[in-house]
Structures are given as structure tokens and as C-alpha cells.
Write a structure and sequence with these properties.
By secondary structure, the chain is α+β, with helices and mostly antiparallel strands. The chain folds into three domains: 119 residues, Lipocalin; 58 residues, no CATH class; 95 residues, no CATH class. It is 17% helix and 45% strand. The strands form four sheets. The chain has an eight-stranded antiparallel β-barrel. Strands 14-15-16-17-18 form a five-stranded antiparallel beta sheet, with no helix packed on it.
Length: 287
């Protein structure tokens, strides 16, 4: 992580602000990344007190900004002078004075969901550096900027900013509930996707035959468990995919589009889905 952030500092510096105002630090909950073998929370109070919490324990120290961009912080077990700080979208990168290769990372807890610092910085930098190309979706995946043709072209080579490259990526999100898979640098498939919630689990649906509702090849998988998906589900929270879907052993076997099918069809699908589930259950009980 530290080496990765060192490499992106030149890019961040172009969009950062200097550490020279009290408002930069106060009224926020800062996490000091990997401070003393773990994440610690720092609260910079306006009266100069510094509260440090870790696993419910609280240490009280003090802090002050010193002209020239210096930050002095002191607690029970540390006393540091930090300098050359840059602030970028809720992330503070700063060095210990006199230690050339040091890099300390603070980040605003409210700005970074899930504390995934690398993903957050990638997203913010990419938003600022995004290049648009007519006729292509501009997407970032695994730190690379990719141009995906807006019109589905299966078998087409993917070009990155650095040229053609052999890459394999699954589930690259595109606008309008679309996604694609790339294998060895070639577009393997386009498909529609959506998420549904069932039994307190989130399920990712990939519908490969995007517009053939009578034969909607695709898969379903729990994104928060390894269980195989089975059941009949209703999709109603996605403007591009509306309907009743039947899933057996993680494979989509039928899908009725609410915009084109009659209610009687839904009843038949529900009965078919129930029969499938009953068959699976009987098979499981007879093991």
C-alpha cells in the first residue's frame, strides 16, 4: 500500500491543497493508516487537544499547526513533527520531518466508505484524469483506463492508454446496467446485470442474452457468500431489467419481462420455479 501511494503522489499533487489551515483538520474523524501496528482514530480539537482512540482506549495529547506547513502532534507514546503535507479529497499524506522516505497516511473516515483507501484514491484520480473518446465507454478497471465500444462488438480487441495489451477481466461495469467480460484482451461478451436482495444476501445477476427474454442465458451468484443460488425472484428495482427470474444451481433458466408478458405467464413461471425448487429439495433429502 505505502509503495503504491508513493507512486501516485506526483499525480495527486497536481490536484491537492497545502496543509496550512486549522479547518483542514478539525471537525473530522481521521484514521492514521497502520499507526502503531493498526488503525488509530485521531480527533483534532479546536482548543489544541488531540484525542487518539484505538480499540476503545483513548489517549489525550495535543496538536498545533506551525507556519511553513508543519504539524506537531504529541501523545503518551509519540512526539512527531510532520511536514510536506498534501491534502487530496479527504486524504492527508505527510512525512516525518528529517526522514526522507517516510510517508504517513491520514484519511477522513466520512469520505472513504469501507476504509478501502486504494479503491477510493483510484476512483478520485481517475475522475480527474478521465479521457473521453467518442463512440466508446471510458471505464477504469484495476487501475487501467479502458475504451469499450458503445455498440456491442464481441471479439474486438481492447485498447488501453498504453496500447494493446493481453488482459482478462470479468464484470466490467458499463452505463445503463450493462457490463462486459474481457478474455486475453478480447471482448468475450456483453450482458445486462443487476443486484437483488434475498434472504439477507445480495445476488449478482448476469443476463448474457440481453434482449432474448425467452432464452436468457446467464448466471447468478451471492456476492457475500459461497452458497449456490436457487429460487424464483422478482426484479423491480432496475429500470432496464424488470421481471420474474428462475434460477437453478446458479444458472438463469427462465425470465419473464414485466413489460411484455401477461400475468398468467408469471403464474406459470412461479409454478415451474416451485417445481424446480421442490426437485432440488427432494434430491438433497434423498442423499
Amino acid at each position: 500500500m505505502i509503495d503504491w501511494i508513493r507512486n501516485i503522489v506526483p499525480r495527486i499533487r497536481n490536484y491537492s491543497t497545502d496543509l496550512n489551515r486549522i479547518e483542514t483538520l478539525v471537525d473530522k474523524t481521521w484514521i492514521w493508516h497502520e499507526f502503531q501496528d493498526g488503525h488509530s482514530t485521531f480527533h483534532f480539537l479546536r482548543d489544541g487537544r488531540l484525542l487518539i482512540t484505538k480499540s476503545g482506549d483513548v489517549d489525550e495529547g495535543f496538536w498545533e499547526l506551525i507556519p511553513g506547513g508543519l504539524l506537531h502532534i504529541k501523545g503518551t507514546n509519540f512526539n512527531y513533527m510532520l511536514n510536506q503535507g498534501i491534502l487530496f479529497k479527504g486524504v492527508l499524506l505527510i512525512k516525518k520531518q528529517g526522514v526522507a522516505d517516510s510517508l504517513e497516511i491520514f484519511y477522513d473516515e466520512a469520505e472513504i466508505p469501507g476504509r478501502d483507501l486504494k479503491a477510493y484514491l483510484n476512483e478520485k484520480i481517475n475522475e480527474l484524469e478521465m479521457i473521453h473518446k467518442p463512440g466508446f465507454y471510458t471505464v477504469f478497471f484495476d487501475g487501467l483506463q479502458l475504451f469499450i465500444p458503445e455498440n456491442p462488438v464481441v471479439g474486438r480487441q481492447i485498447k488501453e492508454l498504453t496500447g494493446y495489451s493481453v488482459v482478462t477481466y470479468n464484470f466490467i461495469k458499463l452505463p445503463n446496467s450493462k457490463a462486459c467480460d474481457i478474455e486475453n484482451g478480447i471482448i468475450l461478451r456483453y450482458y445486462l446485470y443487476t443486484h437483488i436482495t434475498a434472504d439477507n444476501h445480495t445476488i449478482l445477476l448476469k443476463i448474457y442474452n440481453n434482449f432474448d427474454w425467452s432464452n436468457p442465458e446467464g448466471t447468478a451468484e451471492y456476492i457475500d457468500s459461497s452458497s449456490i443460488v436457487n429460487g424464483v425472484f422478482s426484479i423491480s428495482d432496475n429500470s432496464d431489467i424488470q421481471g420474474v427470474i428462475t434460477i437453478n444451481n446458479g444458472n438463469i433458466i427462465s425470465l419473464a419481462n414485466l413489460d411484455t408478458e401477461e400475468n398468467s405467464t408469471f403464474i406459470i413461471l412461479l409454478l415451474v420455479g416451485a417445481a424446480v425448487l421442490l426437485t432440488v429439495l427432494i434430491g438433497y433429502l434423498l442423499r
